[in-house]
Amino acid sequence: MRYVKLVLVALVPLVFQACVANKNLSDNEVFKKAMLGCPNPQMTIITLPSRGPIADAMAITAIKTSGNDGGFSQDFSTLIKSEPKNVSVYCPNLQKLEATILHTFSLYQENRLKGVSVCVIGMSTSQELTSEAARTGATLTLLP
Fold it and tell me: pTM score, two decimals?
């Protein structure tokens, strides 16, 4: 029973962050932001689902601890093998979005993503994403 209490206490900050971070855009709004703000209008847009604060907190934990990103990194790998190599990503939960992309970038060696453009919709700043993109060689655009 004590173990369950510790897990719940550990999840409380993540649940709070998930509640604060939700920024729901309609599919049409995501499309408009991508077309107007991303560097290249020829792109693939991926929308990661948000399943609510508790489920998102659990997903973030799974991504950070075991690398389970729900198949995003595999889909990303497939997309960047084709042309154009422009990917836009959106998720209503910014922490989940950041964790997913950070995990995906971590799978690539230095300069391995040169020529790949990643546009993150709904996020205005992320030092970690900027650093990882620079390390991998990917071009990163953050659209608030």
Answer: 0.82
